[in-house]
Amino acid sequence: MDQVKLLELPRIEDPRGNLTFLQNSDHIPFEIARVFWTYDVPGGEIRGGHAYYLQEEFIIALSGSFDIVITGKNGSEQRYSLNRSYYGIYLPAKTWRHMENFSTNSLALHISIMEFTKDDYIWEFEDYKNLIKDA
Q1: What architecture (CATH level 2) is domain 5-10+29-132?
Q2: What does the pLDDT profile of the chain (135 residues) look like in tens digits?
Q3: What DSSP element (H or E) covers 30?
Q4: pTM greater than 0.70
Q5: How far, in Å, are 55, 87, 123 from residue 118 at the CA level?
């Protein structure tokens, strides 16, 4: 999979409370190597603002809501609002993104294809544009 895609996860509805799950490549397009979460984001703050060379990621709003903003090499933006725990967004490698508009007590779960390495980050948008200019 090489495009940003909103994916729906299985949902088992029950009057006692609903349940959603994922099982590696059954529900997301890669095997899980790393999981982390972001929380307690102060109002008005922005997270992200980078891309990865190799890492693919799947992000779920486990609680609350926030927006994922994808920026194309020409500066165009596409916004995805995550506010249900049975939807997540798949972000392939070389996708420039940031997260904003966090609700109070929001909790974002990040699932990654690879372990953390600082060398995989693309921090400067100009570097990102140069990398994908021929893509």
Answers
A1: Sandwich (2.60)
A2: 579 999 999 999 999 999 999 988 889 999 999 999 999 999 899 999 999 999 999 999 999 999 999 998 888 999 999 999 999 999 999 999 999 999 999 999 999 999 999 999 999 999 999 998 765
A3: none
A4: yes
A5: 11, 28, 10
